[in-house]
């Protein structure tokens, strides 16, 4: 694997990105994980009550209110103290927030490779290249019809978010017991299949 490419030519995000996600999901920094989890859960729960347009408008208004109030507060402090500190967000205003052409190409190539792989696999499944795989796919879709009848997409996203932030830490704490019971279940499934 050279320059972020796998053997089949797919590009992968840098390892630092994966490490940050693992640290986030395993709650290595409790404050950061709590903020991300709380913000994500709040966003998803608010989307169950309001439309995405309303939620994005409210979030934008809150952010604008905070930054405007902070700017006015700093302006008043500068006037009272007769200091010349300048704009309170100057550090952020001077930063380059644009995406480089290289970064866009890198991630668009990765997305294109995954899209092409998905299209090829779907073509293979729908045109019944392998009957067993197509039947497995049909059974999966049939099961998903029942899941769809029980949950909507937003509920599944909420459950997924809660699961992402809780299962890794639970597994880390109770690894031995979980591995033992999963091993027992696998053994029973193999015995049933064998009979």
From TrEMBL:
Gene3D superfamilies: 1.20.5.2480. The keyword Membrane applies. Pfam families: Reticulon. One of its GO terms (cellular component) is neuron projection. The chain crosses the membrane at residues 43-73, 150-171. It is found in: Endoplasmic reticulum membrane. Residues 21-195 form the Reticulon domain. One of its GO terms (biological process) is neuron differentiation. Keywords: Endoplasmic reticulum, Membrane, Transmembrane, Transmembrane helix. PROSITE patterns: RETICULON. The keyword Membrane applies. It comes from Oncorhynchus mykiss. This is Reticulon. It is a multi-pass membrane protein.
């Amino acid at each position: 694997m050279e320059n972020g490419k796998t053997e089949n030519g797919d590009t992968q995000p840098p390892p630092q990105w994966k490490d940050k996600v693992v640290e986030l999901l395993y709650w290595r920094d409790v404050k950061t994980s709590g903020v991300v989890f709380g913000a994500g859960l709040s966003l998803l729960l608010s989307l169950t009550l309001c439309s995405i347009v309303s939620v994005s408008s409210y979030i934008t208004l809150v952010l604008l209110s905070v930054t405007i109030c902070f700017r006015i507060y700093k302006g008043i402090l500068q006037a009272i103290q007769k200091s010349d500190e300048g704009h309170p967000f100057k550090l952020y205003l001077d930063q380059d927030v644009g995406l480089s052409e290289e970064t866009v190409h890198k991630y668009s190539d990765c997305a294109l490779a995954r899209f092409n792989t998905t299209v090829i696999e779907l073509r293979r499944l729908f045109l019944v290249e392998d009957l067993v795989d197509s039947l497995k796919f049909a059974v999966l879709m049939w099961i998903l019809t029942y899941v769809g009848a029980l949950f909507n997409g937003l509920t599944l996203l909420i459950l997924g978010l809660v699961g992402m932030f809780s299962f890794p830490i639970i597994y880390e704490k109770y690894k031995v017991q979980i591995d033992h019971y999963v091993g027992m279940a696998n053994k029973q499934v193999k015995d049933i299949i064998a009979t």
